[in-house]
């Protein structure tokens, strides 16, 4: 079949199966309210947890950074694309995360694809949670290591795999997990993962994309939340969520970071993160260390909306974070409810198969420190009433 004929056929099939992703085009910056097609929409699907993406602090810092360092980096880090502000930001991040060293890269996705294949060999084994992010999965695919997958957050299954391989692996064993899972909002049992890793002489890697800026006293993340600083071997993070920027980073021992600078293809063959983002990153760290009022506002909003759902008998799954999955279970209801909410000027994200298992469809609500109680009341009233209408219509049409 002709390439383009096949692609077009697959796109049509996606539309028929109601899994075609219609991309919404925003005309404003990220906030609690955004503009689409000259209409105001309540934004319930942004990772802008603390509101930094469009905050004057961030905007002005990026402008100042551009004035100082220009726009593009001009080269990869190993040629002439390393600026003093890169090193300063990396040192500040390391201090914030309480690790020896940190390296910043172009995105959280590239952090995983630049880390995992670089530090593993064909003699190693990677053990991965079944619900890990796509960037972890792709990083594992790019590596030469053997791989096993354990049931989601199931420590008995993880130990079963460790017992099976502990005496057979010639190289190293790596246990990799999201710290906070983006589809469900649940938190990985990092203390137990760490205990098993030490018991079976494995190394731990935690991706805390949805934990930093959200968990910990000042947003240091999930590792700090559990008091595991210095115990998880490697942490991967992103600047694109709570930090409101773009970029990713890897934290760990100084020798690890130095090795990545010498060997990671992401670092060696892709232009560096713009210096202005590093400049803004330092300003954001200043804000987080100075005050945690944004984090308190985020959690106040989270408890407010989630408690309303729970009190009235609606399921929000196993979430322990601001990621709030309003469970509707059926794919058709999820897609139809998303359309209805859009008609009510509420922007949400439907999560359906194959992103989640069949029968586990949900509307993923992303709560922000910027949301007001009135906005959250509006979301609650409309999503619950429209969901009930769709369920009733489905029952009547059986």
From TrEMBL:
Per its UniProt record, what CDD domains does this chain match?
KBL_like (cd06454)
- Pinpoint the Aminotransferase class I/classII large domain residues: 41-381
Keywords associated with the record: Pyridoxal phosphate, Transferase
Q: Does the keyword Transferase apply?
A: yes
Name its co-factor(s).
Answer: pyridoxal 5'-phosphate
* One example GO MF annotation: transferase activity
The reply on keyword RNA-binding is no
Q: What gene is this protein a product of? A: kbl
The record's annotation in Pfam families points to:
Aminotran_1_2 (PF00155)
**Protein name per UniProt:** Glycine C-acetyltransferase
Q: Which family does it belong to?
A: Belongs to the class-II pyridoxal-phosphate-dependent aminotransferase family.
| Lineage summary | Bacteria, Bacillati, Mycoplasmatota, Mollicutes, Entomoplasmatales
């Amino acid at each position: 079949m002709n390439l383009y004929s096949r692609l077009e056929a697959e796109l049509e099939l996606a539309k028929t199966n109601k899994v075609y992703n219609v991309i919404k085009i925003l005309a404003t910056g990220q906030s609690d309210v955004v503009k689409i097609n000259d209409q105001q929409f309540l934004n319930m699907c942004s990772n802008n947890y603390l509101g930094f993406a469009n905050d004057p602090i961030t905007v002005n810092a990026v402008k100042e950074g551009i004035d100082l360092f220009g726009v593009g980096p001009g080269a990869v880090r190993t040629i002439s694309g390393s600026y003093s502000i890169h090193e300063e930001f990396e040192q500040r991040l390391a201090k914030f995360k309480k690790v020896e060293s940190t390296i910043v890269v172009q995105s959280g996705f590239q952090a995983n694809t630049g880390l995992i294949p670089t530090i593993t060999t064909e003699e190693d084994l990677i053990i991965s949670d079944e619900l890990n992010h796509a960037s972890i999965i792709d990083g594992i695919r790019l590596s030469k290591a053997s791989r096993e997958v354990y049931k989601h957050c199931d420590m008995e299954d993880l130990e079963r795999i460790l017992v099976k391989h502990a005496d057979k692996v010639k190289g190293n064993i790596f246990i990799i997990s999201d710290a906070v899972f983006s589809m469900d909002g649940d938190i990985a049992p990092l203390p137990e993962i760490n205990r098993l890793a030490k018991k079976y002489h494995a190394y731990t890697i935690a991706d805390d994309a949805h934990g930093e800026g959200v968990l910990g006293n000042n947003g240091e993340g999930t590792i700090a939340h559990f008091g595991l600083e210095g115990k998880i071997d490697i942490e991967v993070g992103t600047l694109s969520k709570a930090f409101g920027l773009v970029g990713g980073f890897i934290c760990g021992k100084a020798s690890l970071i130095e090795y990545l600078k010498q060997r990671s293809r992401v670092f060696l063959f892709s232009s560096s993160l713009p210096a202005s983002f590093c400049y803004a990153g330092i300003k954001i760290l200043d804000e987080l260390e100075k005050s945690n009022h944004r984090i308190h506002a985020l959690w106040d909003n989270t408890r407010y909306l989630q408690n309303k759902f729970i009190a009235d008998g609606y399921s929000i799954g196993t979430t322990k974070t601001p990621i709030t999955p309003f469970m509707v279970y059926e794919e058709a209801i999820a897609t139809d409810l998303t359309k209805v909410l859009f008609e009510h000027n509420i922007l949400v994200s439907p999560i359906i198969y194959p992103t989640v298992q069949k029968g586990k469809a949900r509307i993923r609500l992303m709560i922000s420190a910027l949301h007001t109680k009135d906005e959250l009341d509006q979301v609650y009233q409309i999503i619950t009433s429209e969901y009930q209408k769709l369920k009733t219509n489905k029952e009547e049409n059986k």
